[in-house]
Every structure is written in C-alpha cells, then in structure tokens.
Amino acid sequence: MKKKLLSLIMTGALVMAMTACGGSTGASGNSGSGATGNGELTGTLKLGVIGPLTGPAAIYGNAVANGAQIAVDEINALGTGFSIELNAQDDEHDAEKSVNAYHQLQDWGVQAIAGTVTTTPCIAVSAEANSDRVFMLTPSASATSVTDGKDNVFQLCFADPNQGSASAQYIADNNLATKVAVIYNNADAYSTGIYQTFKSKASELGLQIVSETTFTDDTTDFSVQVGDAQSNGAELVFLPIYYTPASLILQQASSAGYKPKFFGVDGMDGILTIEGFDTSLAEGVMLLTPFSADATDDLTANFVKAYNDKYGEVPSQFAADGYDCPYAIMAALKFYAGKNGGLDVTGMSAEKLCDILIKVFADPDFSVDGVTGLGMRWNSNGEVNKEPKAVVIQNGAYVGM
Amino acid sequence: MLAHLINGISLGSIYAIIALGYTMVYGIAKMLNFAHGDVIMVGGYVSFCSMMYLGLPAPVAILAAVFVCTVLGIVVERLAYKPLRAATSLAVLITAIGMSYFLQNAALLIWGANPKAFPNMFKNIEAIEFAGARVSPVAIVSIVANLIIMIALTLFTTRTKVGKAMRAVSEDKGAATLMGINVNFTISLTFAIGSGLAAIAGVLLCTAYPTLMPTTGSMPGIKAFTAAVFGGIGSIPGAMIGGILLGIIEILARAYISSELADAIVFGVLIVVLIFRPTGLLGKQVHEKV
Fold first, then answer.
1. What is the C-alpha separation between A373 and A388, in angstroms, rounded?
2. Which of A128, A132, A136 is nearest to A152 (CA)?
3. Any bridge partners for residue A384, and if so which?
4. DSSP bridge pairs for A184
5. Of A169, A245, B232, B269, which residue is 20 to 30 A from B245 by alpha carbon distance?
6. Where do the structural domains in chain A lie, given as residue ranges?
C-alpha cells in the first residue's frame, strides 16, 4: 500500500513536471519551433501497438498488428517527409502484461498508441495512459468503459451500444421483419450492452420483440431459446453474440426446422472460419460490420490486395481496424499542421502530441475516410460515428448488401 | 412442452451414458474418476479428426473413437491409478483431477484453443414429426443407444462370467481375490468399458451440440457425475434414471424458470435428493460393519 502510494506520488510529480515542460514548448511551438512554417507535416512518429500476439486471442492482435504494418509501410513509401516507426508489443490478452507492454513502449519513447486491441487490457492501459497523457486510439476495444472519463482515448471501432441501435435501424429501414427475437449472453458485457440499445431503439421504431432469451458462457444447448423464438413466430432472430455460440444456434435452429432471418453484429465475424463448420448453415445470415473484404471501392480493394500479398490471407475486420489507425493519426496530425503553419513531430513529447491529437479528434470538422468507414468523426467522449455496412453470407462468403 | 420433454430425454440419455462410466468405476474401484469427462472430449476429437482429416465415414470414425478411448482408459488406469490402489481415497481423487487437467492441456497443445465445429453425421436424415414436435435424428439415436447400452450392460453383468466377476469385485475385493478372480484385470476391463462408452457419448454430444473445445467434456462430465450420484452411484439402472431425470429437469428449468438458473436448479435438486436419500434414488443402503 505504502509502495503504491509512493509510486502514485512519483507518477504525479512526473506528470506535473512533464506537463510543465509540454506547456512551455507548446508556447514556443506556435512561434516556430516544431513547425516548418509551410503547413506541412514532417518528422518521424513513434507509434506503439499493444495487443495479443500470442495466446488464445492471438488472431485479433496479429490481425491488427499486420494491418497497421501495411498502413505504416504505405505511409513511409509516400516520401512526404513524414514517416512512422511502428513497435508492436504482445500482451497475451492480459491486463497486467498489457501494462508491462505499455511501459516497454514508454522506454522505447513511444509518442502515441494504436491500441490496445482487446477490451479488458485496454481498460487497464488507458487508465495509465490517461494519467501519463499519452494519446490512444484503440482499433477494436469497443466497451464504453474504455473511453469513459478518459479524454485521451478514442475508438476506431463502434462503441458497443451503437451497434445495437444501428442494427435496429437497419432492420427497420429495410423492412427485414416486424417480429423479432433476441438471443443474447447475459454473462457478457458486450452482448448485454448491444441488446439493451437494440431493445430501446427497436421499440422506438415499432419493431416488435416477441422473444427474448438468454444464455451464459458454458451453454451448448440452445433448444429452449430457438424453440421460444420459433413458437412466438419471430421472422428474424437478432444475435448480438460471438460466433461460437452463434454457430450452435444456427445448427440447432436448422435441426428444429426453423428458418428465420438471422442478423448478427461484428462478433459474428469469424463464423465462416470455424474449422469443420458447415457454411451452408450460415447461408443468408446478415451482419452489421464496419468492413467487408469484398467491397469494390479503391481503398478496400488496395488494402485487401496488399494484405493478401504480404500475409497470404483475406484481412478480417480487425486487420482493417489496425490499418485505419495509423492513417487516422496521420490525418489528424496533417489537419493540425495545415492550421498551425506546419508540424515536425520528431522527438516531440507524448504529452504535447496528446494535447494536439485530442484537440483534432474532438474537432467536428475533422473526419477520416478509411476502409472501415467513410467520413469517420469522433465526439469528445472518444466514440466514433460512421456508417456501418451490412453484409450477407452467400455461398460461404460475405457479400455487401 | 412435448418438444422440451423430448429434448430433455435426449440430453439425459447422453448424461446417462457418461454417468455409466462414473458409476461402474466407482462401483468396482471405489474411486471417482474425474478424468472421465475429458475422455469424452478425446473421443470427440478423435472422431472429428477421422472424419475431417482422414475422410473416414461416420461409423468408422465412431469405432476409431471407441478404440482410442478404450486404450486411453486402460493406459490411464495402469499409469495413474493402479500404483495408488492401496493409497487413501483422497490421493486417488487428487490424481484423477490432475489427470483431467493433463488431458485438457494435452488437447489444447495438440488441437489448439479455437473451437471446432463437429460435422453433422445425420445430415441427410430428415427429422421426424411426432405429435406436433420435431424429433431430430441425433435425439432418436441418443435415446436408442442409451437403451441398448443399458440392456447390454445389465445382461453382461448378470449373465456372463466376467460380468459376475465384476459384481463380485465390487462387493468385496478381498473375497473376490480368494475366489480366484483377477481383480486387476477386472478393474482394467471396467475402465475400458467406461471409456469406450465415453467415446460414444462424446460423439453423440458433439453431434447434438457441435462445438468441440478442450473443455467440451468438463461440464457434461460434472452433470453426468451428478446424475450418477442422483440415481445412486454404483447402480447401472440408477445411472440411466438419474441421467434422464437430470436432462429433463435441466431443459424444463431452462424453458420455464430461467436459463441462468438452470444449472443451479440441477445441482440444487442433487442436494435435496441427497438430504432425503443419501444413497441416491436406487442406491443400496449399506450398513458399515464394525
């Protein structure tokens, strides 16, 4: 306890000293130092990525790190005088290891962080980064507790609640159904969060929820939940859950002879890659996701090609989130440089950069086009506002709707 | 209601087949084999690999799973439990828990943590309509398999010489040895039969709920253990009744009370039964002789 208190005081003192420093350079920054004077962005940014590169959630962390690496390679190849140095650290989806990884990045001289990838570690690291004044843009940690009360943390992915209301909106706008069933995991914050906003938006839009059933992490028998939806005549089953239980629900609905429309959220992404899964069961399943690899716009097509060339696979939504992060940070720095007569980021303190990035990201005029959405804007809470794309599974592949 | 009952009986049948393994091993070796649930998982993986990687037809895959699990059961007994035959029951129990962790982590190493979707073996068979309820082929197969296994085991333990030897060992190990029964062989045989049944239960379980992970066997294992205690541990018909009742209670609790509380209700029923009938529904009242 005493030790903790001491370290707290020390950190406090350090932060004070640093902010004082940052303040003085900030003042001089406007008058010339750190700015090139021609409105251009120059210098090298040290960008850190934290995510699970090994362990059970490794597919997410590696996808983000790979996506970010491609973006950094592309940015550095532009030859504009601005470049990014990337450093990806492993946290094994563990909060404690994630904080260690963060400290390792600080020793390296990190100026901004694209991370962390998963929610629980992100809550831990963002608290540290908030007191250290280090800017964080998380590609994929979607819980609201990641950004709550932390002005320095922004999300590139949808916050959980937004997915629920966006799904209800999409179902209503496209007249997919009027009678809806929801099956959600009430032991999981992600699932219940989406369910709650879905429910309130659905009643607002006149969608009738005829069946609401729950399950917990260990559940494998969904006959009751599927049967309830079926006997109440639901035309569409909304599944704000991860793909593993979703695969069981699809199978058990099929064996019960129940063929409604199924509608999922980003947790459904991955269902086609389960080994041994009969993809014909997922035929016609719709899901709301910010990214679909078969979209035909130039941004997506280039990214998918580059990713496939380098890593030999089709990028997932996480890879796309990772890809957008360096671009969003570069766009923010450019935005600032353009308004303040240029910016040289080499050796700039993380605190000063944090102030700049917070100001720009919260600016209503600032928007970014990325592979996970056009015209992404952020509010000062750190939540992103972008149009979700709906995809449908056809012949074992995602097709845009 | 009828649909829930049928689902319950089908789930209960799987529990019953697993419970048999617990009950037989307990009856004969007087130990709780907590690694039994993980043998189910191994059976699931072996049949999965036979079908997906070797392209074998489903019946061959089931036989392969039964074979591998039978051998596994014998090996586990020989390596882990036999050296502890004279040890305290606590030491054996802890060894069994250790074995369970060993099997789970070995599976994690070999097959990885990502869940696999078990292929549907009855894909081309249509479900049957029965009084307005749909009965899936896997439910019918589970129920029929359970009945056949139960009858066969009852006949085996009452009519054959080896079966009678088994019952003799379960009643009094020392006296059975004096009568010329090979106790070690009998115990090995019990493990072999129990593990072979676990493989069948594994295949049925994974076909009904097609997700396969290194921890797939733990929860059904514990539920089946509950079923065995519920019906009276050591009793073969008790395992069947306990399993089916447990399955029905679980499904009905989930349907009419609450899906979160279903497991709590299942284990709560166990506690109530044990308060009023400490030996389970069909367990024999054994008086300790002093």
1. 7
2. A136
3. A378
4. A214
5. A245
6. 36-158+300-385, 161-289
Asked whether the domain spanning A161-289 has the same topology as the one spanning A36-158+300-385, the reply is yes
User: What's the rounded Cα separation, in Å, for the pair B69 and A141?
Assistant: 42
Instruction: Name the 3-class secondary structure at A47.
Output: strand
Which among B114, B119, B211 has CB closest to A220? B211
In the numeric block, which tokens belong to residue A300? 């997506």
* Rounded distance between C-alpha atoms, residue A8 and residue B30, angstroms: 57
* DSSP 8-state secondary structure symbol assigned to residue B114: S
Looking at residue A5, what is its pLDDT? 57
Contact list, A218 vs chain B (CB under 8 Å): 219, 263
Topology of domain A161-289 in CATH is Rossmann fold (3.40.50)
CB contact under 8 A, B210 and A227: no
In what helix (H) or strand (E) does residue A97 lie, and over which residues does it extend? helix A95-108
Chain mean pLDDT for chain A: 85
Taking each helix axis as running N to C, give the angle between helix B58-76 and helix B183-208, from 0 to 180 degrees, rounded to the nearest 10.
140
Q: Describe the strand order of the beta sheet including A261-264 as a list of residue ranges.
A: A208-215, A179-185, A236-239, A261-264, A286-289, A389-394, A397-400
C-alpha atoms less than 13 angstroms from C-alpha of A285 in its C-beta half-sphere:
31
Task: Evaluate whether A239 touches A225 at the Cβ level (below 8 Å).
Answer: no
B15-63, pLDDT tens digit by residue? 999 999 998 888 888 888 889 999 999 999 999 999 988 988 888 999 9
Specify the amino acid at residue A106: Q
B47 chain-A contacts, CB cut-off 8 A? none
pLDDT at B211: 85
Cα(B146)–Cα(B166) distance, integer angstroms: 21
Distances (CA, A) of A102 to A154, A288, B241: 17, 32, 56
Q: Nearest Cβ partner of B117 from A214, A224, A276?
A: A276
Q: What is the pLDDT of residues B251-287, one digit of tens each?
A: 999 888 887 888 888 888 888 888 888 888 887 665 5
Concatenating the DSSP letter of every residue in A109-129 gives T--EEEE-SSHHHHHHHHHHH
Strands A368-370 and A373-378: antiparallel
A85: left (phi over 0), alpha (psi -120 to 50) or beta: beta
Min distance B94 CA to chain A CA atoms (Å)? 24
ipTM of the complex: 0.74
Helix, coil or strand: residue A88? strand
> What's the topology of domain A36-158+300-385?
Rossmann fold (3.40.50)
**Backbone dihedral region for residue A157 (phi beyond 0: left; psi -120 to 50: alpha; all else: beta):** beta
The SS3 call for residue A174 is coil
Reading the block at residue A208, the tokens are 């009738």
Separation in Å, CA of A297 to nearest CA in chain B? 32
CB atoms closer than 10 angstroms to residue A84: 22
